[in-house]
Amino acid sequence: MNNKQIIIICFVLVFVSLIVINEKAVESSNETSQNVHFEKIEINGDDGVNLQRFDSITKYDIVTVDPVAFMKDADSGKITIQLSGKEYKLELEPGILMNEGSKPEIYIYNGNVVGYSKSKARFTASEAGVIGWVDFGGILNIKYIIEQAGEIRRNGEKMEVDVVYRNVDVDSSGTPPSSDDQVYD
User: Fold this and answer.
1) Residue 144 pairs with which residues in a beta bridge?
2) Measured between alpha carbons, how far is 160 from 177 in angstroms, rounded to an integer?
3) What angle do CA 160, 183, 43 make, to 5 degrees?
4) Which of 20, 60, 133, 167 holds its CA 20 to 30 A away from the CA of 118?
């Protein structure tokens, strides 16, 4: 082998090692955290359901959100959230107040996923709810979208619920999501 081939092989090995180390670091850091922001729920026949239809989304979770806890942790700059059964640590800039004096006050949070250099995250939050997305960028090409799904009535109590899905779980042959369901950078 000549020097050029050796250098290329070393570069590939270093690159693969970095990806494996990065994934293991994210997994191990996620094992110890607790999620208090998004709670997956199951819809059953006893629930009074008023939800959007998700014909074009092949896999999704219905979740409840604690927007006050989310904003408190997001304002600290570090937050751990659970999306589709996996936990991710995010670094977010403190909320930017969008409509001071109005009710509800709306805040915008921007940031990234710890351990994913090309990732981006953006959330819009108020005391009424949280919507947003987490984009892992790079070779993963995975984006989680969190949006309002509607409401259910459980044990006589009305609950606002959101839907969490990945961009790769949208079937382009089905009914496309409405224009406000699309998330753009």
Assistant:
1) 134, 166
2) 20
3) 30
4) 60
pLDDT in tens, 37-65: 877 877 776 666 777 777 788 888 888 88
Distance CA 170, CA 141 (A): 13
Residue 131 scores a pLDDT above 70: yes
Cis peptide bond upstream of 104, omega within 30: yes
Query: What does the radius of gyration of the chain's CA atoms come to, in whole angstroms?
Result: 19
- Alpha-carbon distance of 159 to 41, in angstroms, equals 11
Residue bearing tokens 């570069």: 11
Block residue for tokens 């670091």: 25
By residue count, the chain amounts to 185
Q: Three-state DSSP class for 34?
A: coil
Tokens 């109005």 correspond to 102
Of 65, 69, 127, 120, the closest CA to residue 93 belongs to 120
Q: How far is CA 75 from the centre of its chain?
A: 17
